Amino acid sequence: MSLVIAAIGAKALYLLYGWLASAIIANYLSERKGYGSRLGLALGLLLSVVGVIVMLLIPARQDSRWKLQGPFGSGGGKTVAEARADREAEGP
């Protein structure tokens, strides 16, 4: 009888990578949309690929980087702090 240590297989490793990638992507989306990292990380780890889809469907907050700068980076617009300051200067 031989002890096989590497019996997990490549498919399980790829599934693990997919699970971790979905957590990273959901975390990124959650941060950009203004909800913080906890929500995205929880959705990505618990729901895997479905968590990423849920984060894409959740609307972005008003002063989030998603709305001000776009989904992938600086769109040349205002920063979040500048947008909040402008909104507070306008008054209610």
Unreliable stretches (pLDDT < 50, length at least 5) are none
Radius of gyration over C-alpha positions, nearest whole angstrom = 19 Å
List how many beta strands DSSP finds: 0
Percent helix among the residues? 55-70%
Q: Would you write up a description of this structure?
A:
The chain is an all-alpha fold and 92 residues long. It folds into 2 domains: 9-59, no CATH class; 61-92, no CATH class. 65% of the residues lie in helices and 0% in strands. The chain has helices at residues 10-33, 37-47, 49-57, 65-69, 80-90. The longest helix has 24 residues, at 10-33. The radius of gyration is 19 Å and the shape is rod-shaped. The relative contact order is 0.11.
Structural topology:
Blueprint: H1 10-33, H2 37-47, H3 49-57, H4 65-69, H5 80-90
Helix pairs in contact: 1-2, 1-3, 2-3
Quick recap:
With 92 residues, this protein is an all-alpha fold.
Can you tag this structure with a few keywords?
single chain, 92 residues, mainly alpha, 2 domains, 5 helices
